[in-house]
Every structure is written in C-alpha cells, then in structure tokens.
Amino acid sequence: MREKIVEATNLVKWFPLRTGLLSSLIKKELFVKAVDDINFDIYTGEIFGLAGESGSGKTTTGKLLIRLIEITGGKIVFKGDDITSLPEAKFKPLRRKLQIIFQDPYESLNPRMTINDIISEPLRVHGISDEREITKRMNRVLEDVKLTPPDEFLFRYPHELSGGQRQRVAVARAIILSPEFIVADEPVSMLDVSIRAEVLNLILELREKYNVSFLFITHDLALARHICDRIAIMYLGKIVEMGSTEDVIKDSLHPYTKALIKAVPVPDPTARRAEVVIKGEIPSPVNPPLGCHFHTRCPSYIGDICRTKEPPLKELKKKHYVACHLY
Amino acid sequence: MALLEVKNLTTYYEILRGYVRAVEGVTFSVEKKEALGLAGESGCGKTTIALSLLRILPSSGRIMDGEIIIDNVNVVKLNEDKMRKDIRWKKISLVFQGAMNAMNPVYQVGEQIVEAIKIHESHVSKKEAHERAEKLFELVGLEPSRLSNYPFEFSGGMRQRAMIAMAIACNPALLIADEPGTALDVIVQTQVMKLLSELKEKLNMSMIMITHDLSLIADTCEKTAIMYAGHIVEFGDTISVFKKNLHPYTQGLVSSFPSIEGERSRIIAIPGSPPDLLDPPSGCRFHPRCPYAMTICRKERPPLIDVFKDHFVACHLIKMQEEKK
Fold first, then answer.
1. Which residues from B are below 8 Å from A265, CB to CB?
2. B191 contacts A260? CB cut-off 8 A
3. Is B43 helix (H, G, I), strand (E, B) or coil?
4. For position A67, which CATH number holds?
5. Closest approach of chain B CAs to the CA of A303, in angstroms?
6. Number of H helices and number of E strands within chain B?
7. What is the average per-residue pLDDT within A194-215?
8. Which residues of A touch B248 (CB under 8 A)?
9. Segment A65-89, tens digit of pLDDT
10. B213-262: per-residue pLDDT in tens?
C-alpha cells in the first residue's frame, strides 16, 4: 500500500455572502457553500484529478489543501500531521513542501520582476540567501522546466515570454523549494493547444523524477484522462464520483459524470457526436437544491428520495466511489 | 456558386513599429447552408478574418488586398453606408467572442436586440421589432419574458443564447460565430453548439465557426480550414482534413489534442511557439517549427494546391510528392 501524502476529511468551506445592512438585520446570514463536506486522500507520487464545471468548488478545494484560505470545517492531514489549525509560525516550514501553480500565467507572474527574481523569491522568503546555493538551484530548475540556456531567460521580464514559457516559469517557481505536493489549478487552460502538451509532459516528468504528488484541477475530462491516475468529479461543492481514471471515464456510475462525458466533443468527425443529456446550468451554490444537489437536472431522477435525502459517497466497486441513490 | 468567396484576403494592422501581418493571402469559400470551421491558435488571424468580412476592424486594421464576395457583391469596395444597410446583420452577422462582456450592461437585453433590428431595418416599428425579439428568444430557447432582464441577470449560457438571438435578428445568410464555446462549461457549450447547428438547418444559413478547439469543428462543420500565423495551411472536407491530413502543422495539432475516447496516449507537443507577426518567418511561416523543413520552405511561400477532391494543402513537401506522381 502506498503512503498517503494528503488526507482531507469532511472538508468544508463556506464563504459568507455580503448583503446590505438592512437585509442582514432581518434575514439570517447567507453562505456560498463552495466546498461542502468532502473526503479524499492523495497518495505519494500520484496525480489526483479534480474535475467539474465552474463553480463546483475545485479551486477552493485546492486552496484549502495548502491553506491559502481559511478552512470552515474538517481536517487536513499532510504526511500524518494534522495541519488544519497549525499556527502560522509552525506551518511556515511546511509551506515549502506545499506549492501551487495558478491557472493564468499572464496574471500570476509579477510583470515588474525579472524571471530570475520571480523564481528565486521563494528561496529568499524561506531564508535561503547563500548566492551560490541560489544559483545552483536556479540552474537545476530551469533545466527541469527546459528554459535553457538559463542566461537567455534569467534577466527577461514575463511580457517577453510566450504563454507556454510563462507557465514553465510558474512551474519552476513552484518546484524550486523541492515541494512534495503541488496543486496545479487548470495549468494549461489558458495555453494554446500546440503548447499544452509541453506543460503536461513536464508535469509527468516532474512526478517521475522527484516523486511529487499533484492535485490536478481541470474542467477538461479528456485532458484529465491523459494525465491523472485517479479522478474525483465535483458538483456544487460535493464529490459525486471518485475512482481510478479508467473506471470513472469508461465505466462511470453517476448520472452527472455520464452526462459530462457524453457532452465532451471528440476530435474525430466520424466518431459519435457530443450529446446534451441534461438541461440547464449549474444552480447557485448559495441555495443548493436539497437532497442530492443534482436532482434538479438529473435524467435518472428516481423519486422523492433524491429530493429529500442526500446520498452518501459509498464504495460501490473496489476503489470506485459514487454518491447516488440509484445504487 | 458559393455564397461567400474570399480571394487573396490580406489584412494588416498598422502600429508604430510597422505592420502586423495578421492575415495574408487567404482564399476560401463557403457554400450555401454549409458550415466552415476555422481553426488555429490564438493570434493566427481567425478573428481578423471575421472582422474583415464585416469590415469592423479596429482603426489600425486595414484590408490591404483581396476580394470578399458575398452574393456577387464585393464587400471590400462598398462604402460605409451601403455596408451598414445591406451587408451587416442582413447578409453577414457575427456572434462576438466572449458573450460575457459583449452586451451593454446598462441596457435591458431586449432593448439591445430591438436596437439591432431597428438599425438595420429602419422600416420596422418598435412594436414589431419587440415581437420579433420575442420570437427570437423562443427560437434560441429563452423565456420571452426575460427580454426585460439586464445582462447580469443571465447566466453565461443564457447570455450566449441572447447573443445568438441578436445575431440572427435580420435573417443573415451567413452567421459567423467567434469562439462560441470558449468560457462556457462543457455541458453548456454542447447545448450552444447544438443550438447553432439546429438554427443553421432551420434558417438555411451558412456558418463560419471560429475556434481553437478542433473537436468542436469535428462535431459540427462540413468543411475545415486550418490557419497558422495568418495563412491557411490546409482546407477541405472535415472528414478528409481530420483523417487524411497532410500539412505537418495540422498533423501536430491533431495529435496534440487529447480525446476522451480511444487509446490513452501521451500527447505530443509541437516544439516552439507561434511567430511574431510583425516580422513573420519568410517562405512558409511554419518552417521554424516544422520537422520536415527544407531550403525552399525558407524562401518561397507554398501555394495552396488541390490534393484530393476538395482538399487543399499549402506545403512544399506535399507539392513535391504530388509532382512526382
């Protein structure tokens, strides 16, 4: 059995909704239930995919795991230690082990810093100031992300680089502290198709080389299939299905997963056409439907139980979990 | 006779440092009731073609050369007045990219559609225009009562539907959809694509679909044109372009696309990145990234040659192979 690197137990994040003074006096406070009681583990050296539509809580989950935002409830365990409420001073040494790559390389890099400053900043923040050590590490990560020769990039600014190169700078910044767990939040969705593959293959190489574990957040199931070992599908703050990539994609159980997969167009004009199985759009997470959150759009609605009782996530087949009253 | 014929279209943007050669010598045609998918990476000139067809380029953009013929009228030669009266919205209309921001936030959605109708068909009364807007809303699957809503009250998918309703308000012969699925979730995206295909059949329209997503084209278009750095490199029947693609760029693009079906394979990247169009590479613009580049590729731009029936490719390698035959 492989070791668990991250364990999330009953993870909850509610964002309070700002309302006017008057309505806040009469009505009770409203919350956006971005992440609502989810459980999952990520194993060492694994790429764990988190997929779902926008507003399903994927990014919030990612940020919670590395404590970029405050948790409302639940527990996060990193390598056996509970980090949920660790005071900042004690948490700081752990931060270097937990890194993130953001979605948009056009906005996540400071335009007024050189590539050299951007990549070495995490080292300085964490108190590594020996210039020789910094240069050594810089050269290594630049090699890792294939920004070579280093001298050609170090003193340039982000606007002088292409999208793919910028995202590789973001990857270099994330790996310079030799992290053990990286949250990759839609790392290629802003990139052109022909250069996406480069960044994806880079992630796969880093995993092989350093045994880094990833939480890979994406809305693109075709992409998730090519890179993730296991996938969890989220809908309105809940995990509705979880299992190995092949199980979830080829043998999906939840009606929502099935609908998502049917809606993905295939780059082959002679293959099946993308189908719309479900109507409408994802409801607001402020007032999610009662019972199963998906019942308002579900094509396999089986009756009152879906409206009233929330289905638990249970292991239906070996290591393949689903939350649906059908099963 | 094709509905739209574009011959040797060349559009540049003038900036301080020179000309951005966004579209150069582009030739293609769209038949009646046909959907053409225009695919390529960002900055390859897809949107510039759309803006050229409607002549709504930003002030720095200029059509330098070429002809755009729709229903026997050369759009490039028309004066602004005629353009507005006869072509825009009636012959060619556009669903703008980024439905989220394409509408005026301080006007009701209905008012904006009525305005579009009134501008292009001045004889229509306000009441008639409003009735037409109601019908359009039904056609695109929205509640007519929501015409009095403001854009912020709509979800992304609803806004895209409203944009489509506005675009078909004057029964255009050709509808251009610029990245209609981008920024929408996959289920909503599929709904919108389905709607566009249905409308195309129902209203006997032709369509140009601009996208970077090859799978959307495979799903909805009869013809496909692949663009790279302002040139069309491959053009033809969709099945032929996907199954028998010849241009090294098309091949790279197709293999860098992950599919949810078939074998799970490692995705292959095209090395390098697209060129700066201020100073594009000489000859074939793809040669710096092409694994088969030869001396001639650096010197001469390859012509678009007919390889199979209705399947054109611009590549020196293919041209040489064809000549040997």
1. 190, 193, 213, 215-216, 218-219
2. no
3. coil
4. 3.40.50.300
5. 24
6. 11, 12
7. 90
8. none
9. 999 999 999 999 999 999 998 998 9
10. 898 999 899 999 999 999 999 999 999 999 999 999 999 988 888 888 87
Element (H, E) at B211: strand B206-211
Structure confidence at residue B271 (pLDDT): 84
Q: With an 8 Å Cβ cutoff, are B267 and A54 in contact?
A: no
What is the CATH T-level fold of the domain B4-91+172-239, as seen in this structure?
Rossmann fold (3.40.50)
Q: pLDDT tens across B72-98, in order?
A: 999 999 999 999 888 999 999 999 887
Share of chain A above pLDDT 70, in %: 97
- What integer pLDDT is reported at residue B200 of this predicted model? 94
Q: Does B152 touch chain A (CB under 8 A)?
A: no
Q: What integer pLDDT is reported at residue A27 of this predicted model? A: 67
Which of A145, A169, A192 would best serve as a mutation to test chain B binding (most B beta carbons within 10 A)? A192
Which of B41, B212, B218 shows the shortest C-beta gap to A265?
A: B218
C-alpha distance from B25 to closest chain A C-alpha (Å): 24
Query: Which residues have a Cβ under 8 Å from the Cβ of B18 and sit 6 or more positions away?
Result: B278, B279
What is the CB-side half-sphere exposure of residue B122 using CA atoms within 13 A? 3
Name the least confident of A188-192, B58-62, B214-218. Answer: A188-192
Report yes or no on A116 lying in a domain. Answer: no
Question: What is d(CA A286, CA A36) in angstroms, rounded to the nearest whole number?
Answer: 12
DSSP secondary structure string for all residues of A100-146:
EE-S-TTTSS-TTS-HHHHHHHHHHHTT---HHHHHHHHHHHHHHTT
Task: Pull the structure tokens for residue B125.
Answer: 């009364």
How many domains in chain A?
Answer: 1
Spatial separation of the C-alpha atoms in residues A4 and A75, rounded to whole Å = 14
What residue of A is the nearest CA neighbor of B241? A269
Q: How far is A61 from A42, CA to CA, in rounded Å?
A: 13
User: Interior CA angle at A192 toward A200 and B270, to 5°?
Assistant: 65
A222 touches chain B (CB under 8 A): yes
Read off the pLDDT of each residue in A165-189 and give the average, rounded to a whole number: 93
Give all strands (DSSP E) within chain A, no chain letters: 4-16, 31-43, 47-51, 73-78, 81-82, 98-101, 181-185, 213-218, 230-235, 238-244, 314-317, 320-322
pTM for the model stands at 0.87
Q: How many CB pairs (< 8 A) connect A and B?
A: 134
pLDDT at A284: 83
The answer to whether residue A21 is domain-embedded is yes
A110 touches chain B (CB under 8 A): no
pLDDT digits (tens, 9 = 90+) for A43-73: 999 999 999 888 889 999 999 999 999 999 9
Range B149-168 average pLDDT? 91
List the single best residue of A268, A279, A296 to mutate versus B (max B Cβ within 10 A).
A268
